[in-house]
Amino acid sequence: MSIHNVIQVEGLTKKFGDFTAVNAISFKVEKGEIFGFLGANGAGKTTAMKMLIGISIPSSGKATVAGFDVFTHAESIKKSIGYMSQKFALYDDLTVKENITFFGGIYGLSRKRIRQKSAVLIEELGLEKVANKLVGALPLGWKQKLSFSVSMIHDPKIVFLDEPTGGVDPITRRQFWEMIYKAANQGITVFVTTHYMDEAEYCDRVSIMVNGKIEALDTPKKLKEQFKVANMNDVFLKLARG
Ligand SMILES: Nc1ncnc2c1ncn2[C@@H]1O[C@H](COP(=O)(O)OP(=O)(O)OP(=O)(O)O)[C@@H](O)[C@H]1O
């Protein structure tokens, strides 16, 4: 494996009975890259992501994540990555600080490290005034940003974000993307699914899945040239409509 490719996927397939949800997908993602993983509802994105984060065994194909094989080293993968699921993951009935402490513990951080991380994170997110408030009382956008930070509390090499900005307003989405850029600038690889086509424009490269297959993969600029359209929304519509 090239040291630059933190994700390598070749012919990765997942079948549920006779149904092929992910059909022989292949791609590579480089260190520090923001890789957009697009597709219509049911295209197979979440199924593919679950195989990459080591919680679903592929039916066939090959994949390594952070240098570890998804078939044989799923536990090592889990320790090397961060994951933010579509459904908000923090506990509403714990405070901001308690959530950070809880997840820091789950990721195996020492008490000292948790205290340090907690202080930095609360300051960076501007959450000082609500640090002792229940997460359930925070606006959705704040929760999402906190959830993203918590998913990286253990300094992972790669962070997987499954529709991280679903339902939040455009300004908060913009702020969320600033956090994504910051993570990528620090060398963290960001693998992100989204249904917002403006966000697809922010990615370094974008793949588009249709019925379990990757039908296009390139930079947003090259995809627009290839499909002779002005924006990613039109690229997506051309592919999804076939
Ligand atoms: N455990 C399962 N058993 C059977 N079929 C499944 C299972 N999980 C997913 N599928 C099917 O696989 C297909 C791909 O689903 P998946 O959730 O990966 O799509 P997606 O691209 O993530 O969609 P969305 O954008 O709605 O999250 C769908 O047709 C879904 O019904």
From TrEMBL:
The residue ranges of the ABC transporter domain are 7-236
Q: Which InterPro entries match?
A: AAA+_ATPase (IPR003593), ABC_transporter-like_ATP-bd (IPR003439), P-loop_NTPase (IPR027417)
**Keywords assigned by UniProt, alphabetized:** ATP-binding, Nucleotide-binding
Give GO terms: molecular function aspect only.
ATP binding
**Top-rank taxon, per record:** Bacteria
* SUPFAM superfamilies named in the record: P-loop containing nucleoside triphosphate hydrolases (SSF52540)
Matches recorded under Pfam families: ABC_tran
| PANTHER family, A to Z | ABC TRANSPORTER G FAMILY MEMBER 20 ISOFORM X1, ATP-BINDING CASSETTE, SUB-FAMILY H, MEMBER 1
- What name is this protein filed under? ABC transporter ATP-binding protein
Whose protein is this, by species? Winogradskyella litoriviva
